[in-house]
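Order emerges. One example.
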Amino acid sequence: MPKQHLKGLDRDELTAFMVGLGEQPFRAKQLFRWMYGRAAQDFDEITDFAKPLRQRLQEAAALATLTLETQQISQRRDAEKYLFRLADGLHVESVLMRDGAPGRPNRHTLCISSQVGCPVDCKFCATGLMGLLRNLRPGEIVDQVLMVKRLSGSPVTNVVVMGMGEPLLNYDALLKACYLLADDEGPNLAQRRLVISTSGLVPKIERFTQEGHKFRLAISLNATTDEVRNQIMPINRKYPIAALLQAAREYTRQAKQRITFEYILLDGVNDSPADAERLKNLTRPIPCKINLIPYNPIAEPHAVAGGDSLLAFRRPSFERIEAFLAAVRTGPNTVTLRWSKGDDIDAACGQLWTKAQKPIRAEKKGIVI
């Protein structure tokens, strides 16, 4: 019989599994703490269990969902990129970013993936060239956090679901993983320190809002006109900017917290003075934070069948970035400039994957966006 993968099971599911083995329900609570709170990757680490029980678990179940394939550390040691191999041989990426300031505790933000590949096909993103290979299961999402904590020896203070994939296209698995990460007997991440990013799936944003989740929401905006956004983010053809901003306004009204707009600056595409003025005015009515991100250029072509390439995009000059930032800051909302960390270690989403695994244009039939 195939082994039961335990990572990703919640309390009730773990209780049902342990009772099925003839164990008392309190054993499930112990297992939950060891698996999520202490990041155990092998049953022999669970010293609360006698050796016969550990052996039975080894025979019936599995804990680890990921195997480390590659770890890269930036020269500044402010970013670490991990490439993990899944049980089926596919790969997924995670990036740990360190920020610190005098008199303030270090902030360790982990960017995790929600899918292998992505069907949304944003033209500036290496992951988009892959297409969608499959959704990640809840345990594979959670295990990125647990594995990085073990491998880095660092705490993870914040999690952003901004890696490979469109998180809201893996909605149920993602939300289950988020609640496991927030459990006080697990990783115990405050819900406000867990940010879910989306390219703009309006119906999913509306569902997220209505369900009242306390995790924070970020929208990858990246353009101020439908004409440009249609070109670089084809999802805009279905959910244009006006509809997206309306969903964002309703989220802030019901959730009573700010939303984040991510805006990747692409030279000659979306970084003009007129773009800065439009961005400031479009977001003026919405309580938000605007996060400007200069494009992280790639070192070599990433191309697949069909001729797509990321080499057409460039980072704007420092002077152009500074002018854009200054213009947007004249508006009412908080604006930050986030320089990409780890540009010496392929830290942009999808870059390391393409070096480890031959890019495949996945079949997109049947995927509903």
